[in-house]
Structures are given as structure tokens and as C-alpha cells.
Here is the input.
Amino acid sequence: MLEVQNVNVAYGLVQVLWDISFRVEEGEIVAIVGSNGAGKSTTLKTISGLLRPSSGSIVFKGERLDQTPAHMVVEKEVAHIPEGRRLFPFSSVLTNLELGAFTRRARRETAENVEYVFELFPVLRERQNQLAGTLSGGEQQMLAIGRGLMSRPSLLMLDEPSLGLAPKLVLKTLDTLQELNKRGVTILLVEQNVNSALSLCTRGRMAGSFWRVPGKNC
Here is the structure.
């Protein structure tokens, strides 16, 4: 589904990614794990079109993404849930969800997609008229994931979804990702929580090598 090949990315004169290569097959959950500053978030931003690689290629379902504008990447069924959630805090839960349905295909199915998100996260139905900034950390993470799902992506990329959450909510988030995967969503996950990430994923990528996950197919 996704193939990243020999990608190099720099912020000005500072190079962050050096010849990064990996693939994500349809139906997988793949984790990129590592410490702060390793380039994990930069990798997702480059795939989603927020950054441009200086060289290399990114191919999704046979189409090049590395020169595609970010809004068109979303149109191609790729959603990026950024680190820190990046919600609109003074807008309601429902408005945040509706803003996630800005692609042409998603706009036609907004009501259906809202129901899809409410089915996954019943608490958001209860909070739909509440300002997003007043939600708990766990509820905000649910809303961030829900907003990404409003475009009905076939590839969902998440950047540190467990960051700042209590252990119980981390497990809830991981369970949700497993459920989404069962429903046909392929997932690319960036995490510092190595144990949690590798317990969930099919394959893990760290420091230039693929790690085989015991008991799972690679």
C-alpha cells in the first residue's frame, strides 16, 4: 500500500531523515519507534505532504505522493493524526468532527461518518456540543482520532497517540486501533512507548532495521 524509498528530508541546512526506506502492506499495523529527535514525526509529515523530501520517493497505492499537496494526500485516503492532537479548542466536538470531512467524498457522507465515529467513541456523542478544549486528555485523543476518521481513510497515521495518557487510557486507545484495523483500516503508528507499540503492530521499524514481532507475521 505504502512504500517509502530512500527519502531524505531537511529543515533548512539541517538534515533530519537520511535515506529512509520502509513499506506498509494493506491491512497491517506498522510501528515506527524511537527516541525524541529520531525523525519519527518528520517521517509522517513528509508522507502527508506537510514537508517535501529533498530526494527519494513515496508511493501510495501506485501513485507518487512526494510532490503532492497535503490536501490532495487526504483526498487519496491518507489521514494524519498529529502529535498533540491539534484540535480546535473553542469549537464543539461536533464541529471538530465536521471539519475533518472536508474532502469531496467525505462531505457527501458527513452524517454517516459522524455516526461511525460516535459508534467507536460513545462518549463523544454525549459531549458533541461541548467545547473540545474542555474535554479530558483521553477524550481529546478520541476526538483527534475521530476527526481523522471523518475522511474515511484507508491509511491512518498516528503520531504518539499515547502521549500524556494514563495507562488505562493507553490500553483503550490501543484497543480502538485494533478495532479500526479489523474494520479494514491500515495503520502506521509512531510511538515512544515501545512495548505498547510492538504489542499492537505487525512489524516495527527502529534505527534502520525491521524488528520481528514474536508471534506475528512480517
Notes: Residues 1-77+188-218 form a domain with the Rossmann fold fold (CATH 3.40.50.300). The first strand starts at residue 2 and ends at 11. The chain is about 35% helix and 25% strand. Residues 167-182 form the longest helix (16 residues).
